[in-house]
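Milestone 3.1: sequence recovery, worked example.
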């Protein structure tokens, strides 16, 4: 699919979540709401990561369409989500596709990054990174891939230290957890 900004979503469209993200991206682009939708999805993603109840709502196939729609509708003003994202969540609830929401959010971020001429990278760290660390990482990734990089930060304390960086199909794992696991495996012989 060719969007008006000239980006192609070929591999993104291959999955069901990718098709939903592409549809949302197209609507947001038509309505001039890309920034608002991207911001709302970022807020929603953080809320899912921080709330076990919200994560369960999104993942559970046992929660009915109407109940899920009402619960998400109640969250819209609390999270200050834009109207297009709010409507989109209602569609996902009615179509019983809330379980695909994390993949849809990732695919939307990729599409938005591509439309700005950026590459998106998912960075998982053991501890939250400060602004200077994020800027330094962005510079290194920009040098590596040859263009601007939009960074999606996540925290996973089980890594102990270091980072895991995913850019497309590439993964750079410098986490202490992986190093320790590699060492333990090598010692077992």
């Amino acid at each position: 699919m060719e969007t008006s900004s000239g980006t192609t979503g070929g591999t993104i469209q291959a999955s069901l979540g990718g098709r939903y993200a592409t549809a949302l991206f197209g609507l947001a682009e038509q309505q001039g709401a890309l920034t608002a939708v991207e911001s709302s999805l970022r807020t929603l993603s953080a809320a899912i990561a921080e709330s076990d109840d919200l994560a369960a709502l999104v993942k559970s196939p046992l929660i009915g369409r109407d109940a899920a729609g009402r619960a998400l509708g109640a969250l819209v003003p609390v999270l200050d989500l834009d109207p297009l994202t709010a409507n989109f969540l209602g569609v996902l609830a009615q179509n019983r596709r809330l379980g695909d929401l994390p993949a849809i959010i990732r695919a939307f971020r990729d599409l938005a990054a591509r439309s700005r001429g950026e590459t998106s990278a998912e960075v998982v760290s053991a501890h939250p990174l400060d602004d200077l660390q994020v800027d330094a990482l962005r510079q290194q990734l920009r040098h590596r891939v040859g263009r601007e990089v939009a960074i999606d930060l996540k925290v996973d304390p089980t890594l102990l230290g270091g980072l895991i960086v995913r850019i497309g199909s590439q993964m750079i794992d410098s986490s202490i957890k992986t190093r320790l696991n590699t060492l333990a495996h090598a010692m077992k012989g």
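Helices lie at 16-30, 34-50, 52-59, 65-79, 83-94, 101-115, 131-145, 176-188. The domain at 12-112 is CATH 1.10.520.20 (Peroxidase; domain 1).
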